[in-house]
Write a structure and sequence with these properties.
Elements (H helix, E strand, L loop, with lengths): L1 H51 L8 H9 L6 E4 L5 E5 L3 H6 L3 H12 L3 E5 L2 E10 L3 H67 L4 H24 L6 E4 H13 L6 E6 L7 E4 L1 H17 L5 E9 L3 E8 L6 H4 L17 H12 L3 E8 L3 E9 L1
Parallel strand pairs: 6-8
Antiparallel strand pairs: 1-2, 1-4, 3-4, 5-7, 8-9, 9-11, 10-11
Helix pairs in contact: 1-2, 1-5, 5-6, 7-8, 8-10
Protein backbone atom coordinates (compact mmCIF):
# COMPACT_ATOMS: atom_id res chain seq x y z
CA UNK A 1 0.00 0.00 0.00
CA UNK A 2 2.71 2.48 1.02
CA UNK A 3 4.87 1.93 -2.12
CA UNK A 4 1.73 2.41 -4.25
CA UNK A 5 0.91 5.65 -2.42
CA UNK A 6 4.49 6.81 -2.89
CA UNK A 7 4.29 6.05 -6.63
CA UNK A 8 1.03 7.96 -6.85
CA UNK A 9 2.56 10.97 -5.16
CA UNK A 10 5.70 10.81 -7.27
CA UNK A 11 3.73 10.55 -10.50
CA UNK A 12 1.44 13.42 -9.55
CA UNK A 13 4.38 15.59 -8.54
CA UNK A 14 6.26 14.87 -11.77
CA UNK A 15 3.19 15.56 -13.92
CA UNK A 16 2.51 18.81 -12.02
CA UNK A 17 6.13 19.95 -12.34
CA UNK A 18 6.17 19.14 -16.07
CA UNK A 19 2.88 20.99 -16.70
CA UNK A 20 3.81 24.05 -14.67
CA UNK A 21 7.37 24.25 -16.03
CA UNK A 22 6.22 23.88 -19.63
CA UNK A 23 3.46 26.45 -19.13
CA UNK A 24 5.80 28.97 -17.52
CA UNK A 25 8.37 28.69 -20.30
CA UNK A 26 5.76 28.91 -23.05
CA UNK A 27 3.92 31.78 -21.34
CA UNK A 28 7.18 33.71 -20.95
CA UNK A 29 7.96 33.08 -24.62
CA UNK A 30 4.52 34.38 -25.65
CA UNK A 31 4.77 37.34 -23.29
CA UNK A 32 8.10 38.42 -24.79
CA UNK A 33 6.72 38.16 -28.32
CA UNK A 34 3.58 40.12 -27.44
CA UNK A 35 5.65 42.74 -25.56
CA UNK A 36 7.86 43.19 -28.63
CA UNK A 37 4.78 43.36 -30.84
CA UNK A 38 3.19 46.00 -28.59
CA UNK A 39 6.35 48.10 -28.65
CA UNK A 40 6.29 47.93 -32.44
CA UNK A 41 2.64 49.00 -32.43
CA UNK A 42 3.45 52.02 -30.27
CA UNK A 43 6.31 53.00 -32.59
CA UNK A 44 3.93 52.69 -35.55
CA UNK A 45 1.35 54.72 -33.68
CA UNK A 46 3.88 57.47 -32.98
CA UNK A 47 4.94 57.49 -36.63
CA UNK A 48 1.27 57.73 -37.63
CA UNK A 49 0.78 60.72 -35.31
CA UNK A 50 3.83 62.37 -36.92
CA UNK A 51 2.60 61.64 -40.45
CA UNK A 52 -0.88 63.03 -39.78
CA UNK A 53 0.62 66.27 -38.53
CA UNK A 54 3.11 66.45 -41.44
CA UNK A 55 1.75 68.82 -44.08
CA UNK A 56 4.05 67.34 -46.73
CA UNK A 57 2.21 64.00 -46.69
CA UNK A 58 -0.92 64.18 -48.84
CA UNK A 59 -2.57 60.85 -47.95
CA UNK A 60 -3.08 60.05 -44.31
CA UNK A 61 -5.52 57.15 -44.66
CA UNK A 62 -2.96 54.51 -43.68
CA UNK A 63 -1.72 56.64 -40.78
CA UNK A 64 -5.28 57.14 -39.54
CA UNK A 65 -5.92 53.40 -39.70
CA UNK A 66 -2.73 52.66 -37.75
CA UNK A 67 -3.64 55.38 -35.27
CA UNK A 68 -7.04 53.79 -34.69
CA UNK A 69 -6.00 50.13 -34.52
CA UNK A 70 -2.67 50.31 -32.70
CA UNK A 71 -3.72 52.24 -29.64
CA UNK A 72 -6.84 50.42 -28.53
CA UNK A 73 -5.55 48.44 -25.55
CA UNK A 74 -2.03 49.54 -24.62
CA UNK A 75 -1.91 52.09 -21.75
CA UNK A 76 0.42 55.00 -22.55
CA UNK A 77 1.56 58.30 -21.07
CA UNK A 78 3.47 60.93 -23.07
CA UNK A 79 5.79 63.33 -21.27
CA UNK A 80 8.09 66.15 -22.30
CA UNK A 81 11.80 66.46 -21.63
CA UNK A 82 11.08 67.59 -18.06
CA UNK A 83 8.86 64.56 -17.44
CA UNK A 84 5.72 66.67 -17.30
CA UNK A 85 2.69 64.67 -18.45
CA UNK A 86 1.39 65.83 -21.82
CA UNK A 87 -1.22 63.21 -22.61
CA UNK A 88 -2.43 59.72 -21.72
CA UNK A 89 -4.24 56.89 -23.49
CA UNK A 90 -6.21 53.78 -22.48
CA UNK A 91 -6.22 54.54 -18.76
CA UNK A 92 -9.12 54.47 -16.30
CA UNK A 93 -10.86 57.86 -16.76
CA UNK A 94 -12.83 57.49 -13.52
CA UNK A 95 -9.66 57.02 -11.46
CA UNK A 96 -8.00 59.91 -13.26
CA UNK A 97 -10.85 62.19 -12.15
CA UNK A 98 -11.19 60.82 -8.61
CA UNK A 99 -7.49 60.35 -7.75
CA UNK A 100 -5.14 63.24 -8.47
CA UNK A 101 -2.09 61.01 -7.95
CA UNK A 102 -3.31 58.26 -10.30
CA UNK A 103 -1.45 59.46 -13.40
CA UNK A 104 1.78 60.15 -11.50
CA UNK A 105 1.65 56.68 -9.92
CA UNK A 106 0.98 55.07 -13.28
CA UNK A 107 3.90 56.95 -14.80
CA UNK A 108 6.23 55.58 -12.12
CA UNK A 109 4.84 52.11 -12.74
CA UNK A 110 5.41 52.37 -16.49
CA UNK A 111 8.98 53.62 -15.95
CA UNK A 112 9.72 50.39 -14.05
CA UNK A 113 8.03 48.22 -16.68
CA UNK A 114 9.65 49.22 -19.98
CA UNK A 115 12.18 51.84 -21.16
CA UNK A 116 10.52 54.83 -22.89
CA UNK A 117 10.19 55.38 -26.62
CA UNK A 118 11.64 58.76 -27.65
CA UNK A 119 10.02 60.66 -30.52
CA UNK A 120 10.19 64.20 -31.89
CA UNK A 121 7.30 66.45 -31.06
CA UNK A 122 5.42 66.87 -34.40
CA UNK A 123 4.58 70.46 -33.42
CA UNK A 124 8.10 71.35 -32.25
CA UNK A 125 10.97 69.58 -34.03
CA UNK A 126 13.52 70.73 -31.43
CA UNK A 127 11.70 69.00 -28.61
CA UNK A 128 11.98 65.28 -27.84
CA UNK A 129 9.00 63.74 -26.07
CA UNK A 130 8.94 60.35 -24.41
CA UNK A 131 6.24 57.71 -24.33
CA UNK A 132 6.00 55.41 -21.32
CA UNK A 133 3.70 52.42 -21.69
CA UNK A 134 2.47 49.46 -19.69
CA UNK A 135 1.18 46.00 -20.44
CA UNK A 136 -2.05 45.39 -22.29
CA UNK A 137 -4.84 43.27 -20.82
CA UNK A 138 -3.86 40.34 -23.04
CA UNK A 139 -0.24 40.47 -21.92
CA UNK A 140 -1.26 40.59 -18.24
CA UNK A 141 -3.53 37.58 -18.71
CA UNK A 142 -0.70 35.60 -20.28
CA UNK A 143 1.66 36.52 -17.42
CA UNK A 144 -0.88 35.53 -14.75
CA UNK A 145 -1.98 32.37 -16.53
CA UNK A 146 0.87 30.14 -15.16
CA UNK A 147 0.03 31.25 -11.60
CA UNK A 148 -3.63 30.38 -12.09
CA UNK A 149 -2.69 27.07 -13.65
CA UNK A 150 -0.30 26.33 -10.78
CA UNK A 151 -3.11 26.91 -8.30
CA UNK A 152 -5.44 24.64 -10.30
CA UNK A 153 -2.80 21.89 -10.49
CA UNK A 154 -2.03 22.26 -6.77
CA UNK A 155 -5.74 22.01 -5.96
CA UNK A 156 -6.02 18.93 -8.17
CA UNK A 157 -3.08 17.25 -6.40
CA UNK A 158 -4.45 18.09 -2.94
CA UNK A 159 -7.91 16.74 -3.80
CA UNK A 160 -6.38 13.58 -5.29
CA UNK A 161 -4.13 12.97 -2.27
CA UNK A 162 -7.04 13.53 0.12
CA UNK A 163 -9.13 11.07 -1.89
CA UNK A 164 -6.31 8.48 -1.84
CA UNK A 165 -5.72 8.99 1.88
CA UNK A 166 -9.45 8.68 2.62
CA UNK A 167 -9.66 5.52 0.56
CA UNK A 168 -6.66 4.00 2.34
CA UNK A 169 -8.06 4.90 5.77
CA UNK A 170 -11.41 3.42 4.81
CA UNK A 171 -9.71 0.21 3.67
CA UNK A 172 -7.64 0.12 6.84
CA UNK A 173 -10.75 0.59 8.99
CA UNK A 174 -12.49 -2.24 7.17
CA UNK A 175 -9.46 -4.50 7.71
CA UNK A 176 -9.35 -3.62 11.42
CA UNK A 177 -13.08 -4.25 11.85
CA UNK A 178 -12.97 -7.46 9.83
CA UNK A 179 -10.00 -8.84 11.78
CA UNK A 180 -11.62 -7.91 15.09
CA UNK A 181 -14.93 -9.58 14.21
CA UNK A 182 -13.19 -12.69 12.92
CA UNK A 183 -11.02 -12.93 16.06
CA UNK A 184 -14.08 -12.60 18.32
CA UNK A 185 -15.88 -15.25 16.25
CA UNK A 186 -12.92 -17.67 16.33
CA UNK A 187 -12.58 -17.31 20.10
CA UNK A 188 -16.27 -18.01 20.67
CA UNK A 189 -16.29 -21.77 20.04
CA UNK A 190 -13.23 -22.76 22.14
CA UNK A 191 -14.45 -20.48 24.95
CA UNK A 192 -17.77 -22.31 25.08
CA UNK A 193 -15.91 -25.64 25.27
CA UNK A 194 -13.58 -24.35 28.00
CA UNK A 195 -16.54 -23.15 30.04
CA UNK A 196 -18.06 -26.61 29.84
CA UNK A 197 -14.82 -28.23 31.00
CA UNK A 198 -14.52 -25.78 33.90
CA UNK A 199 -18.05 -26.64 35.03
CA UNK A 200 -17.17 -30.34 34.92
CA UNK A 201 -14.04 -29.71 37.01
CA UNK A 202 -16.11 -27.85 39.59
CA UNK A 203 -18.28 -30.92 40.03
CA UNK A 204 -15.22 -33.13 40.62
CA UNK A 205 -13.90 -33.37 44.19
CA UNK A 206 -10.40 -32.04 44.77
CA UNK A 207 -10.36 -29.85 41.63
CA UNK A 208 -12.18 -26.83 43.06
CA UNK A 209 -9.05 -24.65 43.27
CA UNK A 210 -7.94 -25.56 39.74
CA UNK A 211 -11.44 -24.94 38.42
CA UNK A 212 -11.55 -21.52 40.11
CA UNK A 213 -8.25 -20.43 38.53
CA UNK A 214 -9.27 -21.78 35.13
CA UNK A 215 -12.58 -19.96 35.50
CA UNK A 216 -10.71 -16.68 35.96
CA UNK A 217 -8.70 -17.30 32.80
CA UNK A 218 -11.86 -18.18 30.86
CA UNK A 219 -13.50 -14.96 32.05
CA UNK A 220 -10.40 -13.12 30.93
CA UNK A 221 -10.62 -14.70 27.48
CA UNK A 222 -14.31 -13.81 27.32
CA UNK A 223 -13.38 -10.20 28.09
CA UNK A 224 -10.79 -10.20 25.29
CA UNK A 225 -13.34 -11.69 22.88
CA UNK A 226 -15.88 -9.06 23.94
CA UNK A 227 -13.35 -6.29 23.28
CA UNK A 228 -12.63 -7.55 19.80
CA UNK A 229 -16.35 -7.82 19.12
CA UNK A 230 -16.87 -4.19 20.13
CA UNK A 231 -14.05 -3.00 17.85
CA UNK A 232 -15.75 -4.73 14.94
CA UNK A 233 -18.98 -2.81 15.58
CA UNK A 234 -20.07 0.58 16.91
CA UNK A 235 -19.54 0.47 20.69
CA UNK A 236 -22.06 2.08 23.04
CA UNK A 237 -20.75 4.82 25.33
CA UNK A 238 -22.06 5.13 28.88
CA UNK A 239 -21.25 7.50 31.72
CA UNK A 240 -18.74 5.89 34.07
CA UNK A 241 -16.43 6.82 36.93
CA UNK A 242 -12.99 7.09 35.37
CA UNK A 243 -11.26 6.88 38.76
CA UNK A 244 -12.84 3.48 39.48
CA UNK A 245 -12.02 2.18 36.00
CA UNK A 246 -8.37 3.24 36.23
CA UNK A 247 -7.88 1.97 39.80
CA UNK A 248 -9.35 -1.40 38.82
CA UNK A 249 -6.95 -1.82 35.88
CA UNK A 250 -3.95 -0.62 37.91
CA UNK A 251 -4.78 -3.20 40.61
CA UNK A 252 -5.10 -5.91 37.95
CA UNK A 253 -1.71 -5.10 36.36
CA UNK A 254 -0.04 -4.61 39.77
CA UNK A 255 -0.86 -8.20 40.81
CA UNK A 256 0.99 -9.43 37.71
CA UNK A 257 4.01 -7.11 37.94
CA UNK A 258 7.43 -7.40 39.61
CA UNK A 259 7.52 -6.32 43.26
CA UNK A 260 10.13 -3.65 42.53
CA UNK A 261 7.68 -1.75 40.31
CA UNK A 262 5.51 0.70 42.28
CA UNK A 263 2.12 2.00 41.16
CA UNK A 264 0.34 5.21 42.11
CA UNK A 265 -3.03 6.64 41.13
CA UNK A 266 -3.49 10.34 41.89
CA UNK A 267 -6.99 11.74 41.42
CA UNK A 268 -6.22 15.01 43.27
CA UNK A 269 -8.85 14.22 45.86
CA UNK A 270 -11.63 13.98 43.29
CA UNK A 271 -12.85 10.39 43.69
CA UNK A 272 -15.61 10.67 41.12
CA UNK A 273 -14.56 11.88 37.69
CA UNK A 274 -17.13 10.88 35.08
CA UNK A 275 -16.99 10.71 31.30
CA UNK A 276 -18.77 8.90 28.47
CA UNK A 277 -16.82 5.72 27.74
CA UNK A 278 -17.16 2.14 26.63
CA UNK A 279 -15.80 0.44 29.75
CA UNK A 280 -14.29 -2.74 28.18
CA UNK A 281 -12.49 -0.78 25.44
CA UNK A 282 -11.35 1.98 27.81
CA UNK A 283 -9.96 -0.65 30.19
CA UNK A 284 -8.09 -2.16 27.25
CA UNK A 285 -6.43 1.18 26.52
CA UNK A 286 -5.35 1.63 30.17
CA UNK A 287 -4.09 -1.95 30.23
CA UNK A 288 -2.05 -1.40 27.04
CA UNK A 289 -0.50 1.79 28.41
CA UNK A 290 0.39 0.15 31.73
CA UNK A 291 1.87 -2.91 30.01
CA UNK A 292 3.79 -0.64 27.66
CA UNK A 293 5.18 1.20 30.71
CA UNK A 294 6.18 -2.11 32.32
CA UNK A 295 7.95 -3.24 29.14
CA UNK A 296 9.94 0.01 29.16
CA UNK A 297 11.40 -0.78 32.62
CA UNK A 298 13.87 -3.52 33.54
CA UNK A 299 11.79 -4.97 36.38
CA UNK A 300 12.05 -1.90 38.62
CA UNK A 301 10.78 1.67 38.62
CA UNK A 302 7.48 3.46 39.12
CA UNK A 303 4.27 4.03 37.17
CA UNK A 304 2.08 6.99 38.08
CA UNK A 305 -1.40 7.70 36.77
CA UNK A 306 -2.61 11.27 37.21
CA UNK A 307 -6.29 12.11 36.66
CA UNK A 308 -7.44 15.70 36.16
CA UNK A 309 -11.08 16.75 36.08
CA UNK A 310 -11.32 19.86 33.89
CA UNK A 311 -14.49 21.81 32.93
CA UNK A 312 -14.77 20.39 29.41
CA UNK A 313 -12.55 17.31 29.51
CA UNK A 314 -10.92 14.58 31.58
CA UNK A 315 -7.14 14.26 31.33
CA UNK A 316 -5.29 11.05 32.20
CA UNK A 317 -1.47 11.02 32.28
CA UNK A 318 0.33 7.66 32.48
CA UNK A 319 3.98 8.25 33.43
CA UNK A 320 6.75 5.67 33.76
CA UNK A 321 10.44 5.81 34.68
CA UNK A 322 11.49 3.55 31.83
CA UNK A 323 13.86 3.83 28.90
CA UNK A 324 12.04 6.69 27.17
CA UNK A 325 11.41 7.18 23.47
CA UNK A 326 13.84 8.83 21.08
CA UNK A 327 12.59 11.95 19.29
CA UNK A 328 12.76 10.25 15.90
CA UNK A 329 10.48 7.43 17.13
CA UNK A 330 7.83 9.55 18.89
CA UNK A 331 5.97 10.14 15.62
CA UNK A 332 6.00 6.39 14.86
CA UNK A 333 4.92 4.81 18.16
CA UNK A 334 1.24 4.76 17.14
CA UNK A 335 1.86 3.29 13.68
CA UNK A 336 0.70 -0.34 13.25
CA UNK A 337 3.63 -2.72 13.39
CA UNK A 338 6.04 -0.33 15.13
CA UNK A 339 7.78 -1.91 18.11
CA UNK A 340 11.18 -1.81 19.81
CA UNK A 341 10.56 -5.12 21.60
CA UNK A 342 11.91 -8.47 20.43
CA UNK A 343 8.46 -10.00 20.79
CA UNK A 344 5.13 -8.45 19.88
CA UNK A 345 3.25 -7.23 16.84
CA UNK A 346 3.38 -3.51 17.62
CA UNK A 347 -0.41 -3.14 17.59
CA UNK A 348 -1.14 -2.19 21.23
CA UNK A 349 -0.58 1.57 21.01
CA UNK A 350 -2.06 1.78 17.51
CA UNK A 351 -5.18 -0.01 18.72
CA UNK A 352 -5.37 2.19 21.83
CA UNK A 353 -5.17 5.37 19.77
CA UNK A 354 -7.92 4.10 17.48
CA UNK A 355 -10.16 3.26 20.44
CA UNK A 356 -9.72 6.68 22.07
CA UNK A 357 -9.86 8.85 18.95
CA UNK A 358 -12.26 6.97 16.71
CA UNK A 359 -14.71 5.52 19.23
CA UNK A 360 -14.44 8.01 22.12
CA UNK A 361 -13.67 11.13 20.02
CA UNK A 362 -10.80 11.95 22.36
CA UNK A 363 -7.03 12.18 22.04
CA UNK A 364 -4.09 9.90 22.85
CA UNK A 365 -0.55 11.18 22.36
CA UNK A 366 2.95 11.25 23.82
CA UNK A 367 2.98 14.24 26.15
CA UNK A 368 6.69 14.01 26.89
CA UNK A 369 9.57 11.55 26.76
CA UNK A 370 13.26 11.60 27.58
CA UNK A 371 15.75 8.83 26.97
CA UNK A 372 16.80 7.19 30.21
CA UNK A 373 14.18 9.03 32.29
CA UNK A 374 10.76 7.89 31.10
CA UNK A 375 7.65 8.70 29.12
CA UNK A 376 4.24 10.26 29.72
CA UNK A 377 1.24 9.26 27.60
CA UNK A 378 -1.81 11.52 27.79
CA UNK A 379 -5.46 10.60 27.23
CA UNK A 380 -8.00 13.39 26.76
CA UNK A 381 -11.70 12.50 26.99
CA UNK A 382 -14.38 15.04 26.11
CA UNK A 383 -17.25 15.45 28.54
Amino acid sequence: MFPQLFNWRSSLALVAIAIVTGTIFYSNFLAKRIAADEKQKIEQWLQAVTDINDSNISSTNLASKILTENSQDIPMITVNEKDSILDHYNLDTFKIKSDKHYLANKLEEFKKTYPPIVWKNPFNATQNNKVYYGESTLLKQIRYFPIIQLLVVALFIIVTLVAISTRNKSTQNQVWAGMAKETAHQLGTPLSSLQGWVEMLKDSEGNEKIAAEMGKDVERLKLVSDRFGKIGSTPQLEEANIVTQVESMVAYIKRRSPEKVSFEVNDRGDHEITAMINAPLFDWVIENLLKNALDAMDGHGSIKVLLKNEPTQVVIDVTDTGKGISKKNIASVFKPGFTTKKRGWGLGLSLSKRIIEQYHKGELFVKSSELGKGTTFRIVLRK
